[in-house]
Amino acid sequence: MRPQDLQVYGWGANGIMSHSVENRFFAIVCGALLIFVAPLFVLFLFLSSERAEKEIKDHITVLLVANAQALAKPLWDLDEDSVTQISATTVAEGAIVRVNVRDLSGQLDVTQSTIPKSYKGNLESIDRPIIYNGIDGAKRLGTITVYYPKLGLFDGLKSEEIVFISIFIFAVLTVFGAALIGNRIFVIQPLMRLTHAIEATRRLGSRHHVDWQSNDEMGRLASSFNDMQSKLQREENELKLAHRRATDTYNLTPAMLFSLDKDDCIAAVSDYWLATTGYDRAEVIGREFASLVSPDSRTQYIERKRGNTRSAARIDVTVKFLCRDGRIMDVLILETTAIQDGLSLSVMTDVTELKQSEDRNLRQAITDHLTGLLNRQGFESALDAKINEADLRKRELACLFVDLDRFKWINDNMGHAAGDAALRELVSRLQKCMTPGDIAARLGGDEFAMLLLAENAEARAIEMTALIAEVFEAPFVGDARLSASIGIAIYPRQAANAAELLLKSDIAMYAKKRDGKNGAQIFDNGMLDDSRRRAELESHIETGLNEDWFEAYLQPVVNIDDRSIAGFEALMRLHHPQKGILPPGRIIEVAEETGSIIRIGNRIMEKAIADFARLSRIEGMQDTYLAINFSPLQFESELPLRIAALLSRYEIAPRRIVVEITEAVLMDDNPETRMVINEICRYGCRIALDDFGTGYSSLSYINRFPVDIIKIDQSFIRAINDTASDVSAKSRMLVESITTLSHKMNCTVIAEGVETEEECATLRTMGIDYGQGYLFYRPLHPDNLMKTLASLQEDRPSPVAQAS
Predict the structure, then answer these.
(1) What is the pLDDT of residues 332-346, one digit of tens each?
(2) In 158-307, which ranges are continuous DSSP H helix?
(3) What is the mean pLDDT of residues 430-443?
(4) What are the residues facing 102 on neighbouring strands?
C-alpha cells in the first residue's frame, strides 16, 4: 500500500491509525492489567502487611505479659525508679517506640519514648492491666500501654517477596509486548487491506476483493468478504429483475392497492382497485383521495393522521367510499405513513358485509328478542338522544312507564308461553297507537316505557294513555284480561336529565299501583315525599328486625252471648323507640312488596306462640285458641315444619292454633300454597278465612278449601245499623246469609270490628258465634293482657268459651 493511501484512510507517519483497532487493543490490555493484575498485586501487599503486623502484635503481647508481671511489685510499692527502668527495657525492643505505665490512683505515670520529633506517621497501641497478687488476693494496680508504628503496604515485605514481585512484573510486561507485536502482524495488516477494499468499493462503485491468504480467522474473513462481494453483484442483478416483477404484482394482485403522495393525492392504483371501484386510471391519478370518500365520513378520513407522532406507524380507518356507478362501499383502509420516494402504500378492503353484520349485532344487543322493541340498554341510549333532540327543538319529552296488572296470573295459571303471546299481542296493539318519532321499549318482564316528543308533552301523554286503555278493552290469549298502571314524567318540566326522568315516571307508576292500579298518574313532587316516607319505612322495618322492635299484640275473641274469651288474634305491631307504635297496615303493605314480610311473620308467630303459652297458664285459658295472620308470601314448603317445631317447643296442641288467610291466598290457587295449607290442616291446625266479603268473595272457597272459621269483614258489621234503611237491610241480609251458609257447612262465624252494644245485640239475633272488636277488648301487649285477664279472674272465674 502506498503512503498516500495510508493518509487517505487516516493512518499517521508512525503507521498507527488514530482510533484504530491497535489502539483499542492496547487500551484493552492495559485495562485488563488494571482490573485483574493490579488488584492481585495490591492484595498480595495487603496480606504481607497483615502478616507482618500480626507477628509484631504477637511479639508485643508476649512482652506485655512479662513486663506486666515485673511491674506489679514496683507499682505496688510506688517504686518509680524500678518502673522507669523496666519501661526503658521495654521500649528498647525493636518494634516498640513508646511505653506508658500508669497506676489507677494517678500517683504514678511513667512514659518512655524513642520516637524522633520528625516522625509524622500513625501509631498503633496495645495495653494490658497490671495485676498484683497479694495476701488479700489479686488486685488491679494500673495499666501498661505500648505503641508501635503502623505498617504500610510495603513495610512488611521480605527480600524474597521483593524478588518474586520483580519477576512477576517482568513477566507481565513481556506478555504485554508480545501481544502488541502479534496484534500488529496478524490483525492490523489484514484489516488495513480489508479497509482499502471496502473504501474502494464505496468510492468507485466496483466490487474490489482483498488480497490476503492465511489459514487463520483473518484469512477466513478475507475469503468471506470476497464471497460477499461476488454475491452482492449477483443480488444487484436480481433486484433489478425483482423490481420489474413487483410492478407486475402491484398491478395484478387481487387487492385494492393504491399509493398517495405527500399531499394525499392518488399517485398509483392497482388494476384490482380499478376493477372493484369502476374508475379508470386516468381519471383518478392526481386526484385527492378524500374526494372519493362519502361526505359524512370525509372529515374522519382527513383527520386520520391527527395525533399520530410516529412517522412509520400504520393508520387504519373505516370510511364510506363512492364508487363510479354510485354504489357506496364500507371500506377499511390500512395505510403506512412511512413514505418512500414521496409515496405511501395503502390497501383498501371492502367490509360492507362486515359492517352490516355489526349493525345486526348492535340491533340484537339493544332489542328485546320477544317483542322486537328496544330493551333497557337500547331505551337508555334512545332516551339520551331524545333529550338532546328536545333541547335542540325546544320541545318537551314525556316518559310513560307502563307496568301490566295481573300479568303474573297469566304466567302462573296459563303458562309462560301464553304470557309471551300476550306480550307480543300487546306490543302489536300498542304500535298501532304510536306515531312516527315515538319510541317504545320493554324494560323487562311486564314493564314497558314510551317516549313522546311534543310541544305539550303532558297533553300528548294523556292522549296516549287513553289509547292504551282502549288496547286493554279486548281480551288477550285465552280470554285473559289485563290492565296497566302508567306513570308519566315530563322533561324538562319535572326532570333535569334522563335518569331523573325515568326514575320519576317509575315513581308515578308505583303511586298509581298503590292507588288501585289500572290507570295513569302524572308525577308530582308529593310523590317524592311518599317515596322518601316509603324508604324511611323500609329502613324502620329492616332496623326493627335487627333491633327486635316487632311485637305480637293480642286481641281477645269473645262469645257473642256471654262474652267469655274463646281465643286471641295475634296482631303485628312495630314499636319505634322514638315514634312509638307505627301504623301496621302500611308496614304490611311495604313488607309484602319488599319480601321482608316472611321474616316479620316468622318473628310475630314465634313471639305470639310464646306469649300464648304464658297465657295458657292462667286459670280458665287452657282451652282458648290463638289465631295468626299469614301473608300469601309466607306459604313456603318449610312453614308446616316451622309451626310444628314451635308448638312442640311450647307444648301447645295443634287444634289450639288457627291460621288466618285472606281471599287473595285462595284466589291465587297456587298448587304449592294449596299443598302447604293441606299439610297444616293434616297436622291439626284450623283455617280461618279473614275479611270475608271483600274483594272477589265467593262461598265456593269454603267448599274448595278446608276452612273452619269465617270472619265477616267489619265494613258489613258497621252497616247493619246504618241510618239509611236500605243499606242496613242489605247488610243484615248479607250477614245473615253468610252466617246461615257457613253454619250449614260446619264453619264457625266471627264478626270483626264490633264497637257498639247495638251492633252486638243485632249480631246475637243473627246467630253470630263470636265477636271481636273495641267493644270487648282492644289489642294489648301480652304483659298488659295478662294483667287484664288476672283482674277478670277475680270478677268472673271462667271467662272461656270453646271455639268449635
Answers:
(1) 888 876 555 667 788
(2) 159-183, 189-204, 217-252, 271-277, 281-284, 295-302
(3) 90
(4) 109, 143
